[in-house]
Fold this sequence. Notes:
The protein is an all-alpha fold and 233 residues long. The chain has helices at 5-14, 26-36, 42-62, 67-84, 97-115, 120-133, 138-145, 152-169, 175-186, 191-198, 202-227.
Amino acid sequence: MRLDKGRRSLSATQANVVTYRHFNNETTRSSVIRAVADTENQAAWNRLFDLYAGFVFSIARHKGLNDADADDMVQVVFADLARNLPTFQYDRAKGKFRSYLTGLVRWRVMDRLKASKRDADLKAAVGEELKAEMKEDFWERARRADAGDDGFSEREWQAAALDKALRLMKPDVRPEHYAAFIASYIEGQDTELVMRLYGLARDNLYQIRKRLAAKLSEKVAEVLAEMDAPDIA
Length: 233
């Protein structure tokens, strides 16, 4: 990953009406962990929640759900993952895990909208598609549901990885350096302004950006690898 790629990915995401944000609803997290009912793997499911919950929420919002329904969709999708992920045989030749997960959210959102009395016209439009998908196995249906993605899910996936990488990196960085890095590199604030705000010389700011950008690039690569290899062990 090039040093400026994470920044470009974030900017592309911010350009959309719905943008990724870290999903930190502890009530939903507790509900998901209880529903999984796998006490031996609670730590693993918490890790998966941290990796995927924000992405699931964002895709659900992008597909037309409001915040409350998208929150519910996080629980629905994680219930699906709990039932199917333990026996999931990941075949990279058939697609990325992002595609499976995006398709699963889209499929469940269509199911939710189809069941809504407020969306009678939509029910008729998606009914035949859902009927055809039911003939396939769970993960194949999810993969097919991601067909024709507009690139939003890829941007959100990258933004989710960037967000996670920044949270992993933050404890190991001096607070004032982290804040200056976020302002200058991630948010793209004016260099002179950042220098004044944080009392940094230009060369100091450059060195902070260079060092932390390299660290961030490594972290993002690690997170992306983890996100594309779901594991509840």
